[in-house]
Design goal:
homodimer, alpha/beta, 4-stranded parallel beta sheet, 12 strands, DNA-binding
Chain lengths: 331, 331
DNA sequence: TGCGTCAGATTTACCGGTAACGTAGCCTGC
DNA sequence: GCAGGCTACGTTACCGGTAAATCTGACGCA
């Protein structure tokens, strides 16, 4: 890790500027010089210093920051994967962080990451602290907000409407004859997007004259256990619900497990609906009624929108991706 | 993003060196100067430039790189979470990448990331390309290998033995009276660690005189579908197996779903065992027989070992974490 | 009075690239 | 025969911090 352009330049009898040009594959040197420089760089085990390059050129480097709500979410794993593949192919490096559904943690993370002068950022959700918005606006940094749709993005956005997901599921369950619906969520107010789905759901029910009967919002992580115990709690208060909409598929599957343990027939005694489209949901124990979100696609689209912007190409600012309600056998 | 130390220095009537010291919380300035500088920095919206700092000081910065096999693995999501929390608390930034179980992709990623002069790296597994080992050794970079135990780490390691996991599960299933075992894996030769578990499993069975009857290795991602269809394939070849050990819990749950669909009683007609300890496995549809891996702990321990090294503290080079076989109701 | 000491601050050099510009030699066309 | 252009380079300045060395004035003290 010690050889630098100067060393290569000395060893090959040219100036370091020529070496720089050769290594970056530019032009302005002979075939012969190219081969010699490349050979010597290889021999010396030259490792470029992007720190110096990004700093010296004082231009956007190849660093992209991405902040997700939780690293342990299966859905975001797929989004990350989509982003990573798209960026990796284009030579960008990904810096990640988690904000735990907190706008303040997000701001703190952005303050850290921005000091590395990233070429752009990918954020989750459209709810940010005022400090964040200030910071980003006057840093003039390309930003893609993903996951939740916003009509007025800071810069660009790729997502869908969580509210509409809730509405759609509400309408679907009504069509299936459900009249006494409950909702089980998690993370309380912290998860703004989950709350949007709930609001959409409630709004569709209310409009049809069959308002939500009861809801249970847990303060745990939205996993299987939360779904299991959430349903237990909710049913102890309202035993006569005929369907429950869950915050996500993990919780719905937990709820399904509880229903089975309790001897309830699904969907006859109780309908169960989730959200997200985790792989397990399409198999076990029966096909879950849920909304499939194109996670990898969102990641890919976000990365591509960002890179297009960085290269000065004109792309669209708002990309709406389609979610898909799959009827399943539990709703 | 325009104010720099010089600007603050001018505005507060001191030199930029003094500003630097104040902002880094050192000493060698008066209380009065400190307050003035801090106030002006705030007013100008100063954002430090870590690129310049890391470059100029030519010392380990606060960047840590981490490479995982797949970003979509639930288990690695938890490892990442453990790493991120531990590092975030200590002011480090995390750069991630996926190697898709390929040593060559890993090397390519390392070549990229190393040019950012990270303070250290966290890699998954102990199998690396020769080029990788060279690169790391002469970069003298702190490296933590996680997930798979190695007795001769490049530098440090945090993990457990996959082989032993397989042995332990083999012995357990034998004790439960299983005699005709099958194995279902995925990713073919690419996943060295999954293969280690299979080898351990086979070795335990063979030693007891009840060797593995058959195995099915899929070339898909190790998910629910692969488990579902893998079991279908395996049973079509060997209908009389009395237990199947799966590559991981996702696949085992897929297998469980197939067994149910097929009308097989689990565990009476067929035992099913997984590996990994995903949350769903402990609930649905019955408690899965599996091995729980302390994912978050591994991430945390890896991050802490790395930081200890960076701070010059003496930590242990090899950290062995305990996995736990949970009997469950399916094996 | 002279001198050491110390807090508080400044000066200088440098990290490793890249952009912008300069230049020598050669070819080409009119 | 020479302006003009092209090729293949070299020179210089600079990015924004940090380490190390240096400076300065006030104070204590023999």
């Amino acid at each position: 890790m010690k050889a630098n352009l100067e060393d290569i330049a000395r060893a090959s009898g040219v100036s370091k500027m020529t070496v720089s040009r050769v290594l970056r594959g530019g032009s302005g040197f002979s075939e012969e010089t190219r081969d010699r420089v490349l050979g010597i760089a290889e021999k010396l085990g030259y490792v470029p210093n992007r720190l110096a390059a990004a700093f010296g050129a004082d231009q956007a480097g190849t660093l992209v920051g991405m902040c997700v709500p939780r690293l342990t979410s299966g859905l975001f794993g797929h989004v990350l994967d989509g982003v990573d593949r798209a960026l990796g192919r284009l030579g960008y490096q990904l810096m990640i962080g988690a904000n735990n559904h907190s706008a303040d943690e997000e701001e703190a993370w952005i303050r850290q990451v921005i000091s590395w002068r990233p070429a752009g950022l990918i954020l989750s959700g459209r709810h940010h602290s005022p400090g964040t918005v200030d910071l980003l606006r006057n840093a003039a940094l390309p930003v893609v907000e993903i996951w939740d749709l916003t009509t007025s993005p800071i810069d660009m956005s790729v997502g869908f409407s969580h509210f509409d997901c809730g509405v759609e599921m509400g309408q679907f369950l009504l069509r299936r004859g459900r009249r006494r619906a409950g909702y089980i969520g998690a993370l309380a107010r912290a998860d703004v997007m989950g709350a949007s789905r709930r609001e959409g759901f409630e709004s569709a029910l209310a409009r049809a004259g069959h308002p939500l009967i009861d809801r249970e919002i847990l303060h745990d992580a939205p996993g299987f256990y939360a779904g299991y115990y959430g349903l237990e709690t909710l049913l102890s208060r309202c035993p006569d619900l005929d369907v429950v909409y869950f915050h996500n598929d993990e919780m719905a599957i937990g709820g399904l497990a509880y229903a089975q343990a309790r001897g309830l027939r699904v969907p006859d005694d109780l309908g169960i609906a989730g959200w997200g489209g985790m792989e397990a949901a399409s198999i076990l124990p029966r096909r879950l009624t849920t909304t499939i979100v194109p996670t990898t696609l969102i990641g890919k689209a976000a990365a591509e929108a960002l890179v297009a912007r960085l290269r000065g190409e004109k792309g669209q600012d708002v990309t709406v991706v389609a979610t898909r309600l799959v009827p399943g056998e539990t709703g």
